[in-house]
Amino acid sequence: EAQVTQNPRYLITVTGKKLTVTCSQNMNHEYMSWYRQDPGLGLRQIYYSMNVEVTDKGDVPEGYKVSRKEKRNFPLILESPSPNQTSLYFCASSFSVGGRPKAFFGQGTRLTVV
Amino acid sequence: GIQVEQSPPDLILQEGANSTLRCNFSDSVNNLQWFHQNPWGQLINLFYIPSGTKQNGRLSATTVATERYSLLYISSSQTTDSGVYFCAVRAGTASKLTFGTGTRLQVTL
Predict the structure, then answer these.
(1) What is the gyration radius of the CA atoms in chain A, in angstroms?
(2) Would the CB atoms of A42 and B31 count as touching at under 8 Å?
(3) DSSP A32-52
(4) What angle do CA A26, A32, A38 make, to 5 degrees?
(5) How high is the pLDDT of residue A39?
(6) What element of type H or E holds B8?
(7) Do B45 and A59 touch (CB under 8 A)?
(8) B chain contacts of residue A88, beta-carbon cutoff 8 Å
(9) CB distance B45–A102 less than 8 Å?
(10) What angle do CA A72, A7, B103 make, to 5 degrees?
(11) Lowest CB count within 10 Å: B52, B59, B78, B94, which one?
């Protein structure tokens, strides 16, 4: 079954304690990205990756890091989380066949930083 | 960057009613998708529809690219249709999807 898997689904952590949210896709997609969803702001892109070892900033990259060492995995790293990073995070992967791109999303990770 | 506006922001329907959700965007797009976020937070891809009309069961969508809007129709609504509906677009050579702020739908018995 084609899917994007994020872990953990829920996380409560303390300010400053480094954490990683993992994302894995089994569809061999080249393009992957991270979004955060906040009330009244919708989903905003944090980082994206066009392929292995190719990453770039989205709209709200401050406070986040990513890596893309292999095609299937795209972890989101918060080196020193702060309360304003409390949010719902989504990982997505997408492909384009014949000019028809389509995005698939993970189940979401609800992060609370206290 | 491109702006995406959705209306209405909130909608309450009785089960069995029909509804139309609208998405306006400020620039030409080469990708438009509708998503449903269920009450558990999961995002479900409903339609990929940069232009034209598509139907899937009780749902259908129409995008008029020249007039920069898209409509999502929900017919004979059910309580399981509750959640937030997002429109997302990609413009030009941009690599990201830009999301609207969503329409929150509640279907009551």
Answers:
(1) 14
(2) no
(3) EEEEEEETTTEEEEEEEEEET
(4) 115
(5) 81
(6) none
(7) no
(8) 41
(9) yes
(10) 95
(11) B52
The residue count of chain B comes to 109
For chain B, strand residue ranges (E) read: 4-7, 10-14, 19-25, 31-37, 43-48, 52-56, 59-64, 69-74, 83-90, 98-99, 103-108
Q: Closest to B86 (Cβ–Cβ): which among A33, A42, A110?
A: A42
What are the phi and psi torsion angles at B60 (to 5°)?
A: -145, 160
- Render A82-113 in DSSP notation, one character per residue: -GGG-EEEEEEEEEEETTEEEEEE---EEEEE
Structure tokens at A109: 């990770």
Phi, psi of B27 (to 5 degrees): -150, 170
Helix (H, G, I), strand (E, B) or coil at B66: helix
The answer to whether the CB of B21 falls within 8 A of the CB of B85 is: yes
Of the candidates A86, A75, A3, A82, the residue with the CA atom closest to the CA atom of residue A37? A86
With beta carbons less than 8 A apart as the criterion, state whether B66 and B76 touch: no
Reported as a single tens digit per residue, the pLDDT across B49-96 is: 989 999 999 999 999 999 999 999 999 999 999 999 999 998 876 667
Give the pLDDT confidence score for residue A96 in this predicted structure.
66
- B47 burial level (CB within 10 Å; 0-12, 13-18, 19+): buried
